[in-house]
Amino acid sequence: MSESIQEEREPGPSPEPSPITDKEFTGYQRLVYREAGIWLSPVKRALLVGRISRRLRELGGLSYGAYLRKAEEDAAERVRLLDAICTHETHFFREPKHFDFLERVVLPQWRERGDTGSGEGRRVRVWSAGCSSGEEPFTLAMVLRHHLPQREGWDIQVLATDLSTRVLERARQALWPLEKSEEIPTHYLRAYMLKGTGSQEGKMKAGPELRELVRFQRVNLNDGQGVVGRFDLIFCRNVLIYFDAASKERAVDRLLNHLSPNGLLFLGHSESLSGLGWRVRTVMPTVYAPRG
Fold first, then answer.
1. Which helix (H) or strand (E) holds 125?
2. Could you tell me the pTM of the whole model?
3. pLDDT tens for residues 137-171?
4. Pick the CATH number of 96-290 from 3.20.20.70, 3.90.1640.10, 3.40.50.150, 1.20.1250.20
5. Scanning 21, 109, 195, 237, which has its CA 20 to 30 A from the CA of 138?
6. What ranges does the record give for the region Disordered, renumbered to this chain (predicted)?
7. Active site residues
């Protein structure tokens, strides 16, 4: 009797998981809040499902409950979960009033005085907290390098941090679609950005003079570990809107602990430090300096 030969078939797509239950969503709320200080309100339920459903399929069709247990037990998977739920919309020279204030007021004062007022001379330290795909820290690098030339002895370093490992990898490449060039003033674009050719056509890359100023690091503002020293400028814009009152206060407290006595903290246009006025004074809307 001859043996039948069965045709091999490609495995079909993983089945869609059952809808997330109230108990499972509550579990994700608690995990994300504990790890990142981000509160997923009930209206974020669809966002959570949309962001992690692909990962469930990659893992062979895990249920939401099974994936929650995996994330609870596996530190690397927790990082992937947090990567998935973070939103990363950003632009060069976003909220231009901040950069106008730097260029018209802050940097001319530093240059005229010959130092930042921090006691570190011409050593400038800047922190871009929640740097996303790199537009903000590289904007800062352009503005600082232009107004504080290396030939005059200005030593500039920009620390760019984010919770998401995925966007940090993109930011390290310092590579963006060419249409992003429309966000950059012409004199900065010509001085500091390279236009791609050949296989890189349609892209632009920060030049080496900028790339050497910026270093990247994963930092979770909910625990504040890994950041050392004080900074003359801290940009933490459109990050605190994802925190509830308690986690926001903890994060701001950590930011201020790293701010130079003469430094400035920049927040997003929809954020404020109401309730924390005892630690800061308002320089202009969404720009703060330490009291004392």
1. strand 123-129
2. 0.84
3. 999 999 999 999 999 999 999 999 999 888 999 99
4. 3.40.50.150
5. 109
6. 1-22
7. 51, 162
